[in-house]
Every structure is written in structure tokens, then in C-alpha cells.
Structure to design on (67 residues):
């Protein structure tokens, strides 16, 4: 899965009052992974992780990621 707009993920996380570390913990990944995603430096995200991020950010999956 590819990230549609990394900035949107960052803004949604911040609006929910979550740090990168918080979101990483909730999604079962590392803070470094969230950082890479938010900077647009991660080429691909697994389907499972992309779904977890969308759920935790309370946003439809296809608003955040592209198959």
C-alpha cells in the first residue's frame, strides 16, 4: 500500500492528541516506522499496518492509502 498524503496522516495523528510513539504502540509498529510514513520516506506499507493506522486515526482507509 502507498500513502496518499503523508501530511494528512501527521495532521490526523496530532488532532487526535497522539504522539508518533502513541500511534506506533496502538498499531504494533515502531515510532521510526510512523516517522518514515509521515515524512513520505516509506515506499510501501503492509495492508495490515495501513488498516491499523486508519482505524486508530478514525479515518476511512482509502482516504489515507492507495492499493
Amino acid at each position: 500500500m502507498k500513502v496518499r498524503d503523508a501530511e494528512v496522516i501527521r495532521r490526523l495523528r496530532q488532532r487526535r492528541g497522539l504522539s508518533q510513539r502513541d500511534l506506533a504502540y496502538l498499531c504494533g509498529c515502531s515510532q521510526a516506522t510512523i516517522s518514515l510514513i509521515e515524512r513520505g520516506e516509506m515506499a510501501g506499507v503492509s495492508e495490515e499496518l495501513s488498516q491499523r493506522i486508519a482505524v486508530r486515526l478514525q479515518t476511512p482507509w482509502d482516504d489515507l492509502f492507495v492499493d
Summary: The longest strand covers residues 2-3. Residues 16 and 48 are 21 Å apart (CA to CA). The mean pLDDT is 97. The domain at 2-61 is CATH 1.10.260.40 (434 Repressor (Amino-terminal Domain)).
